[in-house]
């Protein structure tokens, strides 16, 4: 699936602006998290990675500290990037890996956690529910034709679920979280590096094929914090 965008690759775009948090309220640990994210994102080859949602609309809440989504002035750590899409849109696996957990009974709603080497990627607020068959747990979305089991091997770009409104959410979106070596990484920085590497490779046209790159990052026409 190839999508078209210039926004992620541009440092001064609105997504970058949405990641910024008021420094007067930001804990001192945030800069180290950002620097770590940049270092890790730049150290990987992303040509085989997939953008995690179809029918993308906008990035609605960035990684980092934000005001509580349930109201009030308290800050909370938002451990991923919220990507809005129409309810029922398919979610695609970002990177080849193994399902290590499925669940459906917390703020994340119905979710899947996938391990890809040192990377751990989480997808929240999906359609469906967890069912157990022969002592094996599955995330099941019959309407969408989805049945994903713990321990299952998944390829990059594979449809693994659909955008829903399960758990703590005020609108349809997927909360996409990333960890590297058990440390949180800003997904927006990974998307920028994905886009940059894909653009460079396409421009050089040296052995690049559409099959090698599952996605080219799509432009967001609206970026903000909707309190998801």
Features:
228 residues, Glucose Permease (Domain IIA), nine-stranded mixed beta sheet, 16 strands, 16% helix, disordered C terminus, Cell_wall_metabolism_enzyme, M23ase_b-sheet_dom
Can you summarize this structure?
It contains 3 helices and 16 strands.
Question: How would you portray this structure in words?
Answer:
It holds the Pfam family Peptidase_M23. InterPro entries: Cell_wall_metabolism_enzyme (IPR050570), Dup_hybrid_motif (IPR011055), M23ase_b-sheet_dom (IPR016047). This is M23 family peptidase. Residues 77-187 form the M23ase beta-sheet core domain. The structure is a single chain. The chain has three helices and 16 strands. The strands form four sheets. Strands 1, 4, 6, 7, 8, 12, 14, 15 and 16 form a nine-stranded mixed β-sheet that branches. Strands 9-10-11 form a three-stranded antiparallel β-sheet, with no helix packed on it. A two-stranded antiparallel sheet has the order 2-3. The chain is 16% helix and 33% strand. Strand 7 (110-116) and strand 8 (119-126) form a beta hairpin. The chain is globular and about 45 Å long. The chain has a domain at 51-204: Distorted Sandwich (Glucose Permease (Domain IIA)), CATH 2.70.70.
């Amino acid at each position: 699936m190839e999508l078209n965008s210039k926004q992620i690759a541009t440092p001064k775009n609105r997504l970058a602006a949405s990641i910024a948090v008021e420094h007067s309220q930001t804990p001192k640990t945030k800069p180290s998290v950002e620097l770590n994210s940049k270092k890790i994102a730049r150290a990987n080859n992303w040509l085989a990675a997939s953008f995690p949602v179809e029918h993308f609309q906008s990035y609605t809440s960035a990684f980092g500290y934000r005001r509580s989504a349930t109201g009030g002035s308290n800050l909370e750590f938002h451990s991923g990037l919220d990507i809005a899409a129409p309810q029922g849109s398919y979610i695609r696996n970002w990177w080849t890996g193994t399902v290590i957990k499925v669940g459906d009974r917390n703020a994340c709603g119905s979710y899947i956690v996938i391990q890809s080497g040192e990377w751990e990627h989480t997808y929240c607020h999906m359609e469906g529910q967890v069912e157990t068959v022969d002592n094996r747990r599955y995330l099941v979305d019959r309407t969408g034709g989805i049945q994903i089991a713990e321990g299952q091997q998944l390829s990059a770009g594979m449809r693994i679920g659909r955008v829903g409104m399960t758990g703590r959410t005020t609108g349809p979106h997927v909360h996409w979280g990333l960890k590297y070596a058990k440390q949180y990484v800003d997904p927006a920085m990974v998307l920028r590096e994905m886009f940059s590497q894909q653009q460079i490779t396409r421009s050089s046209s040296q052995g690049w094929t559409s099959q090698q790159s599952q996605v080219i990052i799509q432009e967001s026409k609206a970026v903000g914090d909707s309190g998801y």
